[in-house]
Design brief:
single chain, about 475 residues, alpha/beta, FAD/NAD(P)-binding domain, Enolase-like, domain 1, 3 domains, seven-stranded mixed β-sheet, 13 helices, about 30% helix, globular, oxidoreductase, FAD, FAD/NAD-linked_Rdtase_dimer_sf, flavoprotein, nucleotide-binding
Length: about 475
């Protein structure tokens, strides 16, 4: 038996590394186990989000957004001539950002006294953790508490097996280093739409196949409808009710076979990205006698404070119920570390923002209009378009709107849904308001700076009661 720790965290993604830092800050002797290594054999920290997910995808989205803006700069009177994109340089920049951030996590571990243990972690009985290092050496550690933060992996589908350089998951998609002429994407979710947007901006013909008949079923219908309209203008060809039935690799091309309402069809592309969702990475994580239970989909069973059924063992992030979002994982990690240290901690699962980083961005927090109506809640709704925002006009970024939903009886804000150029930043204002139990009137009485795109939130709050100033209000029936 090796050293004993107060806390051992398995997984150094946004749930695990944050939990480890918080636990160490609270005076607990903490170790974090991570199996991922670089080409020098050193642990790679930050998990999927930092290395092959949230951060690198945003770097590519930002580069291609800047390219697109420059191409269309003549609207501002800027004459640019021919614009080209050095894709290899774009990818190198993305890799540099990832490298800086992973080194940053390593520095934070050092600063907070977190011990990094390289290897594959497995929970044994009695809060013991077996770690199998890259060289195969096994070591068993003991802990007073264990936090499982093993994350998730992409779902693979039999009709489209991954093929080096041609049929790709999210990792492969982030490393395409030249602009494909034709790109196929299976799945019109967050990853599919973001990666499709990256290449559509660089001139690629992008076709997105979505098996569901409804576009963005998790979003408010108004957001989904507006997004579909905007993406169509951006030459994203999104085919709904289209189910992949097979693929054939012919040299450097992929023939994608699918069925839709019209029958069987084929599509030939140069690259194919499979983005049909993610599943919890719990295989090999638990010994049979660990005391931790999985549900039928492989998620770790936990209560509202992320306790498993094994005393002293917690689980956070993508491997447990709830949205697979980095910020949800991080906040769960903080909650658990606080609980272990003896503090009161509770997370508000009703106020977790979701964002899709296309342009315009899509963001929401709280309930959709459809969810509230289905639950029989009497609501009032206010909408304000960015087309009526002076700041959005000045930025030539007027697509979209802010939609606010409030309880008709109490005026409490129940949901905010945004399509717009800065939706990812604006949604935090809504989340803060909802966290404090704000009413629409509270925001109506708040002074917003002019001219800002944030004023659209103010106006949407006013519109809830038919009092928007800078647009004509709908007459109440």
């Amino acid at each position: 038996m090796s050293d004993k720790f107060d806390v051992i965290v398995i997984g150094a993604g946004p749930g695990g590394y944050v939990a480890a830092i918080r636990a160490a800050q609270l005076g607990l002797k903490t170790a974090c186990v991570e199996k991922w290594i670089d080409d020098k054999g050193a642990p790679v920290l930050g998990g999927t989000c930092l290395n092959v997910g949230c951060i690198p995808s945003k770097a590519l989205l930002e580069s291609t957004h800047q390219f697109h803006k420059t191409q269309h700069a003549d609207v501002h009177g800027i004459q640019t001539g021919d614009i080209t994109m050095d894709v290899k340089k774009m990818v190198a920049r993305k890799n540099k950002i990832v490298s800086n951030l992973t080194m940053g996590v390593s520095g934070l571990f050092k600063a907070n006294g977190v011990t990094v243990i390289q290897g594959m972690g497995k929970l044994l009985a009695n809060k013991q953790v077996q770690v199998t290092a890259a060289d195969g050496v096994e070591t068993v550690y003991a802990a007073e508490n264990v936090i499982l933060a093993s994350g998730s992996v992409p779902v693979e589908i039999p009709p489209a097996p991954l093929t080096e350089g041609l049929i790709l998951d999210n990792v492969g998609a982030l490393n395409i280093d030249e602009t494909p002429k034709r790109l196929g994407v299976i799945g019109a979710g967050v990853i599919g739409l973001e990666m499709g947007s990256v290449w559509a901006r660089l001139g690629t013909e992008v076709t997105v196949l979505e098996a569901m008949d409804e576009f963005l079923g998790m979003a408010d219908k108004d957001v989904a409808k507006e997004a579909a309209k905007v993406f169509k203008k951006q030459n994203l060809d999104i085919k709904l009710g289209a189910r992949c039935t097979g693929t054939e690799v012919n040299g450097q091309e992929v023939t994608l076979k699918y069925t839709d309402a019209e029958g069987e069809k084929e599509l030939v592309v140069d690259k194919l990205i499979v983005a049909v969702g993610r599943r919890p990475l719990t295989k090999g994580l638990l010994a049979d006698d660990s005391g931790v239970k999985l549900d039928e989909r492989g998620f770790i069973f936990v209560d509202g404070q992320c306790r498993t059924e094994a005393p002293g063992v917690y689980a956070v992030g993508d491997s447990v119920r709830g949205p697979m979002l980095a910020h949800k994982a991080s906040e769960e990690g903080i909650m658990v570390a606080d609980i272990i240290a003896g503090h009161h901690a509770q997370m508000n699962y009703d106020v977790i923002p979701s964002i899709i980083y296309t342009h315009p961005e899509l963001a929401w927090v709280g309930k959709t209009e459809q969810e509230l109506k289905a639950a029989g809640v009497a609501i009032k709704v206010g909408k304000f378009p960015f087309a009526a925002s002076g700041r959005a006009m000045a930025a030539d970024d007027t697509d979209g709107f802010v939609k606010m939903i409030a309880d008709e009886a109490t005026d409490r804000i129940l949901g905010v849904h945004i399509v717009g150029g800065m939706a990812s930043e604006l949604i935090a204002q809504a989340a803060i308001a909802m966290e404090f139990g704000s009413t629409a009137e509270d925001l109506q009485l708040t002074v917003f700076a002019h001219p800002t795109v944030s004023e659209a939130i103010h106006e949407a709050a006013l519109a809830v009661d038919g009092h928007a100033i800078h647009m004509a209000n709908r007459k109440k029936r």
